[in-house]
Amino acid sequence: MSSVLVIATGNKHKYGEIADFLRGVPVQLASLADFPPVDPPEETGVTFEENAVLKARYYAERLGSPCVADDSGIVIDALNGEPGVYSARFAGEGCTDDDNNAKVLAMLQGVPEEKRTGRYICIAALAGMDGQVHTVEGAVEGRIACGLRGINGFGYDPMFIPEGHDKTFGELDPAIKAGISHRFRAFSQIRSMLESGL
User: Fold this and answer.
1) For residue 2, what pLDDT band results from cuts at 50, 70 and 90?
2) Phi, psi (5° rounding) for residue 64?
3) Mean pLDDT score of the chain
4) What count of other Cβ atoms lies within 10 Å of the Cβ of residue 95?
5) Sheet of 4-7: strands edge to edge?
6) DSSP letters along 148-170, please?
7) Domains, the chain, ranges and CATH?
8) Are 57 and 66 in contact (CB under 8 A)?
9) Which residues are catalytic?
């Protein structure tokens, strides 16, 4: 592994979370902003893994440096797995988190609490310069609240209540969320890989 690892995301919230999870690893962390601008790839995968691998490979090839990328989102059982890989753009291209949350809540209107189950999933892909890509998965089970609660986090956090808690990710102390989130669970495995010299 090169001494520089690019965290390949244009989402500043996600970059901050990932950088925190990987702080202290034996490589220098870099962001896309540390390189000349590169157009983002078209996320054509139909699974989180396909999109994570696609992004990690794409940026590793164009930036000439090992990259880690993730694809993540929320999977809601009552919506047959939606939003899934379309979580970031569920309400349409250019939509906001508020737009996505409003669409999900409208679709779940009338669905009883016991059927509002779902999970956050994160697949992280680590692409080296040898063409190899390693993937890991992190997930956290939970349920969908009937409204938005809390101002912490981003994405669907104000409506997602993780298993074992009665507060949404939007209400929980960020340090508590950080220790149980899907992204933490995935990047803990990436961290172990980097510490072992992969």
Assistant:
1) low
2) 65, 35
3) 94
4) 14
5) 28-31, 4-7, 67-76, 117-127, 133-144, 160-162
6) ---SSSSTTGGGEEETT-SS-TT
7) 4-195 (3.90.950.10)
8) no
9) 71
- Provide the token pair at 178: 């950080």
Q: Residue 84 burial by CB count (10 A; 0-12/13-18/19+): exposed, middle or buried?
A: middle
pLDDT band of 198, cuts 50, 70, 90? low
Residue 28: what residue type? Q
**H helix intervals, the chain:** 12-22, 48-63, 97-107, 174-180, 182-195
User: What is the amino acid identity at position 153?
Assistant: G
**Position 83, amino acid:** P
For residue 102, how many other CB atoms are within 10 A of its CB?
14
The structure's pTM equals 0.92
CB within 8 A of 46, min separation 6: which ones? 85
Nearest CA to 188 out of 137, 129, 145 is that of 137
